[in-house]
Write a structure and sequence with these properties.
alpha+beta; 3-stranded mixed β-sheet; 53% helix; 18% strand
Length: 101
């Protein structure tokens, strides 16, 4: 595959499937960063990824059950941060990711 073709496939402004995936990954990264800034620095560092589902569920992925417990106490701050990013979040779920990403 020519380098120019690959560049077009990964272009986030492209309307193709890969362009959508790149845009979505950037959006999820921006959301995770916003959530990390909304809580204490140590809690923010434990956030691996985040997403708001179509039904309004904010799903936050973190490193361990201990961090999940702490982040659940910060659910209101996480929801406020997601809403400040223009997301229509109505409830928050914190999940633990096991293994290497």
């Amino acid at each position: 595959m020519a380098a120019k073709s690959l560049e077009n496939l990964l272009n986030p402004s492209n309307n193709g499937d890969l362009g959508y995936i790149v845009r979505r990954a950037r959006d999820m990264g921006a959301l995770a960063s916003a959530l990390a800034r909304a809580v204490a620095p140590d809690e923010g560092a434990a956030i691996i990824a985040a997403n708001v589902r179509d039904d309004g569920e904010l799903v936050v992925l973190c490193q361990s059950p201990a961090w999940a417990s702490r982040l659940r106490f910060a659910a209101d701050a996480l929801l406020d941060a997601a809403r400040a990013q223009g997301r229509d979040a109505t409830r928050c779920t914190v999940r633990v990711v096991r293994g290497d990403l």
